[in-house]
Amino acid sequence: MNTSETVIEAGSVERQYWRDVWRYRELLYFLAWRDILVRYKQTVVGVAWAVLKPLVTTFVFTFLFQGIAGLESGEVPYPLLVMAGMLPWNFFAVAVSESGNSLVSNSGMVSKVYFPRLIVPASSLLPSFVDLAISGVILAVMMVVYGYAPGWQIITLPVFLLVAVGAAFGAGLWLSALMVKFRDVRFIIPFAVQIGFFISGVAVSSSEIPEKWRFFYSLNPMVGVIDGFRWALLGSNQVVYWPAFIVSLVVVAFLVIFGVIYFRKTERGFADVI
Amino acid sequence: MSDTVINVENVSKRYIIGHEASKGDGLRHAIEGVFRSPLRWLRSVKENRQATKEEFWALRSVNMEVKRGEVTGIIGHNGAGKSTLLKVLSRITDPTEGRIRLRGTVASLLEVGTGFHPELTGRENIFLNGAILGMPRTEIRRKFDEIVAFSDIEKFIDTPVKRYSSGMYVRLAFAVAAHLEPDILIVDEVLAVGDAAFQKKCLGKMDEVAKTGRTVLFVSHNMPLIANLCTTATMLRGGRVAATGEVRSVIDRYLADVAGLGSKPLAERTDRSGNGEIMVTDLEVLDRSGKSAANVISGETVTIRLHYVCRDHGRKECRAGVMVRESEQLCCVLSTWMARPEPIYVSGSGHIDFTVRDLPLAGGVYTLDPFLESNELYDNVSNGGEMSVVDGDFFGSGRIKPSPHWRSVGVLVRHECHGFG
Fold first, then answer.
1. Tens digits of per-residue pLDDT, B7-46?
2. Which of A227, A229, A264, B375 has its CA 20 to 30 A from that of B135?
3. Is A12 an interface residue toward B (CB < 8 Å)?
4. Which residues in B272-393 belong to E strands, given as ranges?
5. How far apart are CA B96 and CA B283, in angstroms?
6. Which chain B residues are closer than 8 Å to A112 by Cβ?
């Protein structure tokens, strides 16, 4: 018989919590697996949606911004520029929305079963990786079509991806915990994602931004990530504004650390207010 | 090593309830307020917020101890704090005060099918639900066939559960939970669902779980079920422990409480039968000195006083009586018809006394059903009152129970014994 003792009291022990997170790691995987399974059930085209969505968006943007607005993209074909930016942005946008909504949409579980709640927003990040992989394949095909080979920089891609994951996780922690109490967050998320799309430079190259705004512009961690993706995928003529990138790393670190602290603090009350 | 697996010390749980309704008088009012005097409006909103918050203690200094292998029932009225206690024990919510020690792994089943996803198939949901309840994947895989067999839905295992009947859904969900192997199993009133055959199967499974030395905590309103399944019980009332100990005695306490809850003044009761020409307005239990008493003692003189009122003027012939029951078991009937040869007449209002010398009832709580009748029924109130009897020296032998372990409820019969060597 397992004689491990559990102590429950007001403000439970921290060490016990992280031990439980480890013990429930399989749940992390199962919840993500459920979300992926469920997503395309009872649709006609099924998983094809994951391919159609980024593809159509890229065409629309190419047409809109280059064809009508006539934005410059330098020597890189515009569709590639947009697609390389869409890759991390879509990942971030979907991950943040899913993660932010996760606690409330799993409220039945939260109020009836014990498990470390951190698992919920964390697991809802995972399905976005599937989308990312599919979009990645599309981009690869496009690069072949345009005859564009990536340079050595591509090995740095995981670093930028990690920053995107961190940003999504940090924001997801805050939003999901806040939404338990304030359902207003549900309406804020899509709005913020929409605005974020325009201020993160998905449709434009960061070099278009006036120099004096560059630093503030780059405080948004996704700017660094998107620039980084373009640099890593499309080559050295795509500039990353490194000082701001460092700052955005700090922003992400703060987002995650204080996100975890805030989440842990409010977590005990989740079942009472959800 | 101590055998206590659950130790609850002074646990309290406070909820803050907000009264949203009293917050404001609608949007128009609020907008008006903001524009008239913004500062005062802000202040009033703040004060309102504080004023409308109210504390509610769902649990108050609860102490409890459960030993290994015990099956303990938790009983109490709605709102007594049972569910809160289970939520605290299963770590869904933190206690506000106090401390709980749990030895071993805990699985709680507060709801059947938590986390089931309607779009997923039965097979997929078994894995998902297992993971949510804390079962490792290897264990689920090992027990998969057993779970499916238990649930009796082999044919539909690859059908999305949204197409299941509610019975199938519940069977599958319980089957998963029944195959958990925690050291401590916490079960809320989940057996109330499903048909009789399946319920029986579930009970069998729970019994089996208990026999393997696991500890089970079980909440239900179904007293026969509790009596059947549990060895000990704890009764909660208003967030506090009202009784704890051997299951029968706690259930008795609970049933006495339930009966007490229905003690609306007898005259105001509407759940009565008869034409109402004469009505019972009160029942009193008097001890040997003729005073109204909370408890009377076996072997002593007891009077049950029945107060009545006539609707019309004039004398009426009447037979009055009181039936004395213990649960559903009728113990005896006291009646004017049997005790007096000549008919009695009543008018206006008054009372009739039934006096029993040497009360021949063992300790317990008895229910009194008064009735008034002649050729037709005037009035009859089921559970119109109760009489609490304390064991006494009925036989004059100095002994109050045949054996210390005896649960003495029933009629005592005076007797003699002869023929000793």
1. 898 888 888 776 554 444 555 666 666 666 666 666 666 5
2. A264
3. yes
4. 272-273, 278-286, 295-297, 302-310, 316-326, 329-335, 344-346, 349-356, 364-373, 377-381, 385-390
5. 45
6. 92, 110-111, 114
Question: Using one digit for the tens of pLDDT, what is the confidence trace for A2-22?
Answer: 456 777 776 656 677 888 888
pLDDT recorded at residue A67: 64
Show Cβ contacts of residue B202 under 8 Å, excluding neighbours closer than 6 positions. Answer: B174, B178, B191, B194
Encode pLDDT of A184-195 as tens digits.
888 889 999 888
Is residue A176 included in any domain, yes or no? yes
Q: What is the pTM of this model?
A: 0.68
Please give the ipTM for the structure prediction. 0.81
Chain A residues with CB inside 8 Å of B177's CB? none
Banded pLDDT at B305 (limits 50, 70, 90)? very high
Residue A269 touches chain B, beta carbons under 8 Å: yes
Separation of alpha carbons A104 and A266, rounded Å: 14
Smallest Cα distance from A169 to chain B, Å? 22
A7 in contact with chain B, both atoms CB, cutoff 8 A: yes
Instruction: Report CB contact under 8 Å: B124, A37.
Output: yes
**B104 vs A3, A11, A110: nearest CB:** A3
β strands within B38-179, DSSP E: 53-67, 71-75, 97-103, 106-109
Cβ pair B119:A4 closer than 8 A: no
Fold (CATH) for B58-260: Rossmann fold (3.40.50)
Report yes or no: A109 at the B interface, CB cutoff 8 Å. yes
Domain B266-390, CATH homologous superfamily name and number: abc- transporter (atp binding component) like domain (2.70.50.60)
Confirm whether A2 is domain-assigned. Answer: no
Do the Cβ atoms of A41 and B94 come within 8 Å? no
Give the residue on A whose Cα is nearest the Cα of B118. A38
**For residue B119, how far is the Cα from the chain centroid?**
38
Domain chopping of chain B, boundaries: 58-260, 266-390
The yes-or-no verdict on residue A66 having pLDDT over 60 is yes
